[in-house]
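Fig. S4 source data, part A: sequence.
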Amino acid sequence: MGLASQRPVRRVRFGETKARHQGQPKGSKLDAHAAFLLELIEETSPISLQEMQAKLQEERGVSAGIGTLWRFFHARAITLKNNRARLRARPARCQGSAAGLV
């Protein structure tokens, strides 16, 4: 009988009957820096995740990947759209088209 198969028996002998937590703990290492990141968005509205990553490293000394930043904002339903093409005036396809019908 191997060591792995003896562990559950050993846990029961010592009175541990609940299942242990599995997986990674909930939350993000960026939770402590939430106010800083949200303030960063308000100050410089067109800011990319790469720029946020650099500022977080420079000012707070925290290294975080782009995916970590993305998940942080996704969990809070904050979207950052920095595509200049989307800021242009849109054609009036749907605006006022029903007014011409009588």
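Fig. S4 source data, part B ends here. The first helix runs from residue 3 to 13.
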